């Protein structure tokens, strides 16, 4: 008989109060067992860490169920099939799966997405060719709809969403203005990604610098940060500006006390008088764009016209620190954890 697999997972030990801390996470060993009919046993190769996970650690009502204390923290992985009791999957197949923060998992084969390693590096299916990239592509195409000569602004511009938003905006003939944190990230956004301008959000005069970089105002603001960046953007929005909203990472820890002048009446007055389109979305709302996304961005990766960057830590035990660092902007690129070779 084969030796049983000794797997490991990270569970939510306690709901974070404000910023997550080490004691909110717990590592456990477990035996995943064998797949039942219609299931597969997976070995997870890469784990994606994403800001939405902070919201899932809360018990606040949202678009998806919360992770309860004691449960494996949610997350998407690239995995290899180790054993299969499904006719749809063979041993050795590579798949995308929502297995969570774990080294191994037994999962229903239904819903797993096969991936072909010959088309692109497998880790890109969690970043530029995965959920973050699709969020950028679909949100910009459905809601932002930049036109030639318009100004598109995006924060976290060196990250997996913001970096692609700016590159796609440039392809549409728009001006791309990025907001990032620190000299290295700003240089990457300007010099490698090709944005027209970049603002360091750590500057004390960030709002004034953004205004100077957008002399004709802002036509599209791709919102993935919130906080002080939103406060700086709002006065610069042009009539009929479009604002796709996919995230608010500045407020995920629930510790921000200063809401600026954008109370509900002030916000709604601006929405009315400027005739703004302000629309939140979750990436899977826009599945009709999936094929176009894979075709266009996949081609850009292959011909070298679309750039991306990854921030990879090693081993499951590194996930909590990498996650907490991401929420503070310490990462440089798409945050991944390499779990196996």
Task: Give your account of this protein's structure.
By secondary structure, the chain is α/β, with parallel strands linked by helices. Helices cover 26% and strands 25% of the residues. It is built from 9 helices and 15 strands. Strands 3, 4, 5, 6, 7, 14 and 15 form a 7-stranded mixed sheet that branches. It has a 6-stranded parallel sheet with strand order 10-9-8-11-12-13, with helices on both faces. Strands 1-2 form a two-stranded antiparallel sheet. The longest helix has 14 residues. The two termini are 25 Å apart. The relative contact order is 0.15.
In short:
With 341 residues, the protein is of the alpha/beta class.
Contiguous helical run count:
9
Q: Report the count of strand segments.
A: 15
The biggest beta sheet reads: 7 strands, mixed
Instruction: Quickly give the structural class.
Output: alpha/beta
Shape: globular
Radius of gyration, in Å, reads 21 Å
pLDDT < 50 stretches: 256-261
Q: Could you state the order of secondary-structure elements as H and E?
A: EEEHEEEEHEHEHEHEHEHEHEHE
Task: Give helix % range.
Answer: 25-40%
Determine the strand fraction and express it as a percent band: 15-25%
What distance separates the N and C termini? 25 Å
Mean pLDDT, all residues: 93
């Amino acid at each position: 008989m084969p030796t049983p697999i000794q797997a490991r997972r990270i569970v939510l030990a306690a709901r974070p109060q404000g910023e997550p801390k080490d004691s909110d996470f717990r590592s456990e060993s477990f035996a995943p067992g064998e797949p039942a009919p219609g299931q597969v046993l997976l070995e997870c190769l890469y784990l994606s860490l994403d800001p939405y996970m902070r919201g899932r650690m809360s018990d606040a009502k949202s678009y998806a169920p919360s992770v309860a204390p004691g449960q494996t923290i949610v997350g998407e992985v690239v995995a290899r099939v180790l054993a299969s009791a499904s006719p749809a999957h063979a041993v050795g197949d590579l798949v995308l799966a929502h297995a969570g923060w774990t080294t191994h998992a037994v999962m229903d084969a239904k819903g797993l997405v096969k991936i072909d390693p010959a088309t692109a590096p497998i880790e890109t299916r969690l970043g530029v060719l995965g959920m973050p990239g699709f969020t950028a592509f679909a949100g910009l195409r459905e809601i932002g709809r930049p036109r030639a000569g318009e100004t598109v602004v995006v924060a976290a511009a060196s990250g997996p969403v913001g970096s692609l938003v700016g590159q796609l905006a440039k392809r549409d003939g728009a001006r791309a203005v990025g907001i990032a944190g620190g000299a290295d990230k700003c240089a990457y956004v300007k010099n490698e990604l090709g944005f027209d301008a970049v603002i360091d959000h750590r500057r004390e005069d960030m709002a004034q610098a953004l205004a100077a970089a957008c002399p004709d105002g802002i036509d599209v603001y791709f919102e993935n940060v919130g906080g002080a960046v939103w406060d700086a953007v709002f006065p610069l929005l042009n009539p009929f500006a479009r604002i796709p909203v996919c995230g608010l990472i500045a407020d995920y820890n629930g510790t921000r006390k200063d809401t600026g002048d954008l109370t509900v009446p002030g916000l709604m007055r601006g929405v009315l008088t400027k005739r703004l389109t302000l629309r939140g979305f979750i990436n899977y709302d826009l599945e009709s764009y999936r094929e176009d996304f894979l075709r266009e961005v996949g081609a850009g990766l292959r011909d070298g016209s679309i750039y991306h960057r990854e921030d990879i830590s090693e081993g499951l035990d590194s996930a909590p620190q990498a996650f907490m660092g991401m929420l503070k902007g310490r990462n440089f690129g798409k945050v991944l954890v390499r779990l196996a070779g």
